[in-house]
Each structure stands twice: as C-alpha cells, then as structure tokens.
Model the fold of this input.
Amino acid sequence: MYPPTTTKAGMWLMAHNGFFKPEHMGYINEQLASLPDDHINILYSLQLKNPTHILLFSIFLGGYGVDRFLLNDVGLGVGKLLTGGGCGIWWLVDLFLVQDRARDRNYEMLMGALGYQAAVHAHGYDPHQPPHQPPHQQQ
Done:
C-alpha cells in the first residue's frame, strides 16, 4: 500500500505515518507517487503537528486553550481561555477530539503543499514568482 522506503516519498511517509488519519493514507500515497523526488524535499519543511504532543498539551494546558492555539484555532483557543475550558466540559471533550483535529490540520497543510507542487510540476514554473518580464527595448 505504501511506496517502498527507498524512495524519498516512502521515507517521508514512513516518518509521518501517525500524523494522518488511516483513511487519508491511500490518497496521500497516490499523490506522493506522482511527484518527482526533487519535489518531495519541500514536504520536509512542513511544520506538521504531532497528534500525541497536541494531546499532551490538551491534558495539561487545554483548559487555557493552548491546544487550540497550537492548531491555529485561535477563536476556539480564546473561547477556552476565557471560559476556563468551558468550565472543564470543553476541556474534557477536546481530550477525545484534539488528535483527530491535529491529523485533519496536517492533511490540509499537506494537500496545500501538494497542490502547489502539482502546479509547479505541471506548468514548469513557480506560481508565487512574478512572470518573466522581457527587457525593455530602447527606442
């Protein structure tokens, strides 16, 4: 199911296997297999969230919304901070939800990076760079 670990894509996938939901792994595998090895390097720069670390932050600091701030859910983090984790109820519910939320966030970041890489691969240019301008001709 996963690519061989001798490829860059396989090594990256093995190193980040627990960072995604199992149902997403097949699609991720297909997307990584379609990219050349030199485009895989950008994936190493993604700042993926370790779901276990997020759970630990949720256990110890979730009442202050730290777990939600780490997942870039600033509004929910502020809400948890101001309500003391929803008087403990929100904190307790998040203990069961925060790991899946981290995996979803990782998937979103990966799909964004893969979409960017697919555009570069398909068109042969970097869409974030300005187009090449020919030199001005003197009159």
Observations:
- The two ends are 62 Å apart (CA to CA).
- Helices lie at 8-15, 22-33, 37-40, 51-61, 66-70, 74-87, 89-123.
- The chain has one domain: 8-123.
- Residues 89-123 form the longest helix (35 residues).
